[in-house]
Design a protein that fits this description.
Blueprint (H helix, E strand, L loop, with lengths): L10 H13 L2 E2 L9 H8 L29 E2 L18 H18 L7 H7 L13 H11 L38 H10 L2 E5 L4 H4 L1 E3 L12 E10 L5 E6 L6
Antiparallel strand pairs: 1-4, 2-5, 3-5, 5-6
Helix pairs in contact: 3-5
């Protein structure tokens, strides 16, 4: 207020403006601040990977869920279904971290056990389809691999190296899934139905500079179709100023 000579007519307006101030997102200096946006995109997103445009439609189990039946807010961290933030480093395998986060969540919901699973097993071993390790991939294809592979081993048994490696076959499966479904496209309500029931893999335009320097608050922006980064939706809610938000788990470390 002092710096920009902001004056409010009464305590109520000051309180309201303070809530707006807190809700606005902010950017900061972080480990990506000495990278150009092109350099940042080259290491943190799906690089030049272009998936096959042909998608086989799946069912959607939450189709008939009433929006009135959904909780107003959900945070899967509070239900113990989200492992701590991981860091993909200089390897463009966000797809593996996104798929693993969703898998860890549904395994916890189904079995009661939160198990940190191995992204590196996907990077090294899921190489016979479209997925290309550090060069990029797709969450759907990761799910297909997990099913066909009989699951994934633990993070500790097959630790992350942030580089393409040789597949260590014979790893004991710690958790698996039976199937996967795509949330209907361009449908916020459908995504809300899914996220109310489990953490969900989502794709975003992660090369945007607001992602590169994001530091906190509710990030707002336009809808985009240049989807080059996989993360996980782990909740949703409404900010104090009425802004609806998604809660996202990224894989770029805690800073």
């Amino acid at each position: 207020m002092a710096q920009y000579s902001r004056v409010y007519k009464d305590a109520a307006e000051k309180a309201r403006r303070f809530e707006v101030f807190k809700a606005n997102f902010w950017l900061g200096v972080n480990q990506f601040a000495d990278l150009t946006n092109d350099e940042f995109r080259a290491t943190k997103t799906n690089k030049g990977f272009k998936p096959s445009p042909v998608k086989v439609p799946t069912g959607f189990r939450y189709e008939d869920v009433s929006i009135d039946a959904l909780p107003a807010t959900i945070d899967w961290r509070t239900k113990g279904a989200v492992t701590p933030i991981k860091d993909q480093g200089q390897c463009g395998c966000c797809w593996a971290f996104s798929a693993v986060a969703a898998t860890e969540g549904i395994v916890k919901i189904s079995t009661g056990n939160l198990i940190s699973l191995s992204e590196q097993e996907l990077v090294d071993c899921d190489v016979h389809g479209e997925d290309q390790g550090c060069e990029g991939g797709l969450m759907d294809d990761a799910f297909k691999f997990i099913i066909k592979n009989g699951g994934l081993t633990t993070e500790s048994a097959y630790p992350y190296t942030a580089a393409d490696g040789k597949c260590k076959s014979g790893s004991n499966s710690a958790a698996t899934i039976k199937g996967y479904e795509d949330v209907p496209a361009n449908n916020d309500v459908a995504l809300m139905k899914a996220v109310a029931n489990q953490p969900v893999s989502v794709a975003v335009d992660g090369g945007d500079m607001t992602f590169q320097f994001y530091s906190g608050g509710v990030m707002t922006g336009s809808c985009r179709t240049d989807l080059d980064h996989g993360i996980a939706a782990i909740g949703y809610g409404k900010a104090s100023d009425g802004t609806n938000y998604w809660l996202m788990k990224n894989s770029w470390g805690t800073t």
